[in-house]
Amino acid sequence: MLRAPVVVGIDASEDALHATRWAAIDAALHDVPLRIVCAVGEPDEADAEELRAHRERYLENARDALAIAAEVATAAAEPITEIEVTADLVDDAPIPTLCAAATTARLVVVGSRGLGAYHRSLLGSVSTALARHAPGPVAIVTGPPPDRTAPVVVGVDASPQSARAVALAFDEAARRGVELVAVHAWTRYLRHAEVADSQREGARLLEESIAPALAENPEVRVRRVVAEDRPARRLLTESAHAQLVVVGSHGKGGFAGMTLGSTSQALLHSIDCPLIIARPEH
Q1: pLDDT tens profile 129-139
Q2: Separation CA 269–CA 193 (nearest Å)
Q3: Same-domain status, 157 and 198
Q4: Which of 198, 201, 202, 150 minimizes the C-alpha distance to 177?
Q5: Which one of 141, 162, 190 terminates a domain?
Q6: Taking every annotated instance into account, which residue ranges of this chain make up the domain UspA (predicted)?
Q7: Spatial separation of the C-alpha atoms in residues 158 and 143, rounded to whole Å
Q8: Does the predicted model carry a pTM greater than 0.85?
Q9: Of 91, 93, 50, 67, nearest to 12 (Cα)?
């Protein structure tokens, strides 16, 4: 049976190695292969002349980065289980390469920042582009893998994207054996609404939203958070003690075709733990 791999896009940055370690652990927890991708397509026009002049060294650095990442991945996964690790040097630009990989991958993982074009970046601003345009779930990793005993946090708002985020978050919490914190934040647009009524409606919405995933993962301990607050702010508060936050690409307030909602975008630029941005299954 073909198992969808975890795919991690790398360059030679430290953030890419952090992403590789996290991706390897996630692949081991799901017992799926890990594919490490270093895409070295044509650089942006502004940097093309300088980078083409150093093409061979550029490619050599990419091969070295892949070899190091493969060693790091194998070591990170080993305490959990042995996984199949492949490392591919792809002669194409990173964004289309990883967006294409997202159509068949279980998850695409990248670091939050690359080296930057001035320093021969292979990833650059890929994390932002993938968060906006990848057809499948994307994990953006900042820093070393966090405490694996900490909870997983998920944002809940009853949208289709949120439903996918809830399913992913329950799966991640179950495999890690940790608590899941399900967060629904609400605001009173109509100030005459009673706080108690809004709180009860929020609790009902959260309970209905997590019920299918909880039925499939009854072993997962769930802490429910329903609060009057901005969603991004509340999720950031909960993320301070989390190992992973999962949100939908955009929520109930988003327009059809929107690539990234305000909550996911705010978290993308401010969160300090790994973030998965989910979309409905393709």
Answers
A1: 888 889 999 99
A2: 33
A3: yes
A4: 150
A5: 141
A6: 5-141, 151-279
A7: 31
A8: yes
A9: 67
